[in-house]
From TrEMBL:
HTH tetR-type domain mapped to chain residues: 19-79
Species of origin: Kribbella speibonae
NADP found in the keyword field: no
Keyword hit for Repeat: no
Protein name from the UniProt record: TetR/AcrR family transcriptional regulator
Key words, A-Z: DNA-binding
DNA-binding region: 42-61
Pfam short name (any one): TetR_N
UniProt superkingdom: Bacteria
InterPro entries: DNA-bd_HTH_TetR-type_CS, Homeodomain-like_sf, HTH-type_TetR-like_transc_reg, HTH_TetR, TetR_C_22
Entry GO MF terms: DNA-binding transcription factor activity; transcription cis-regulatory region binding
Length: 205
C-alpha cells in the first residue's frame, strides 16, 4: 500500500489520466454512500457510477472500507486547506474559532461526500487508523496556530482544551444543520461562548 496525496492507494497513479480516474472513483463512492448508505454501498455500484470496470476500482482500493477511508482523508485535506486559507487574515483567536466552525458547517451543507462520510468519531470509528485520528490532526494544527499567532500558552491542558473544542464544535455544527434557521441561530449563539470559554484560560486576556 502506498500513499498518494491525502490517502493510501494500492498503487500510485503515474499519469494525470490515472489520477483523474482515482478522483472519479472517490466521487462515485461519495454518491453511492449518499444515495444508498454505507452498508448498502457496493464496489460494483461505485464502478458503475464511475463508468469503469470494477477491476479498476480494485487496482487502487482493496475493498469498500479502504475507499471510505480515502474519502475521509480527502475530506480532511480539503477541510484543512480551506481553514488554513481563511485563517490567513484573521486577527483574533475568537474569530479563528468562528472560521473553523463556519467552514465545517459550510462543507457539511454543500459537499455531499463530506456530509455522508463525516469526519472524526461522529463517523464510523473503524474507518480511523487510530481513535480520534482526524480530530487529533486538526486539533494539533489549530493549537499550533493559536500558540504562534495569538500567544496561547502551550501545555497538555491547552491541547486537551483544543481537542475538546474541535469535537464539540463539530457536534454543534451537526445539531445546527438539522434544525430550522431560527433554532440553528439560537444553538450557535449559545454554543460559541462555550467554545471560547474552553480556550480563554490558555490565551492572553
Amino acid at each position: 500500500m502506498v500513499t498518494s496525496g491525502a490517502y493510501p492507494l494500492r498503487r500510485t497513479p503515474t499519469q494525470d489520466r490515472a489520477s483523474r480516474q482515482v478522483e472519479r472513483i472517490l466521487d462515485a463512492a461519495c454518491a453511492e454512500v449518499v444515495e444508498r448508505g454505507y452498508d448498502a454501498a457496493s464496489t460494483s455500484g461505485i464502478a458503475k457510477r464511475a463508468e469503469i470496470a470494477v477491476g479498476s476500482v480494485y487496482r487502487y482500493f482493496p475493498d469498500k472500507r479502504s475507499l471510505i477511508q480515502a474519502i475521509e482523508r480527502r475530506n480532511q485535506a480539503r477541510y484543512t486547506d480551506a481553514v488554513r486559507e481563511r485563517l490567513a487574515d484573521v486577527t483574533s483567536w475568537r474569530a479563528a474559532v468562528d472560521v473553523t466552525l463556519d467552514t465545517f458547517r459550510e462543507m457539511h451543507r454543500t459537499d455531499p461526500g463530506f456530509k455522508a462520510v463525516v469526519l472524526s468519531g461522529l463517523g464510523d470509528p473503524e474507518l480511523e487508523a487510530k481513535p480520534g485520528e482526524f480530530d487529533d490532526q486538526h486539533a494539533g494544527e489549530f493549537a499550533e496556530l493559536l500558540a504562534a499567532r495569538f500567544g496561547a500558552r502551550d501545555s497538555r491542558d491547552f491541547r486537551l482544551a483544543v481537542t475538546l473544542s474541535i469535537t464539540m464544535g463539530e457536534a454543534l455544527a451537526h445539531l445546527a444543520d438539522r434544525l430550522s434557521a431560527d433554532e440553528a441561530e439560537y444553538v450557535l449563539d449559545q454554543g460559541r461562548p462555550v467554545l471560547y470559554n474552553l480556550l480563554a484560560p490558555h490565551l492572553p486576556a
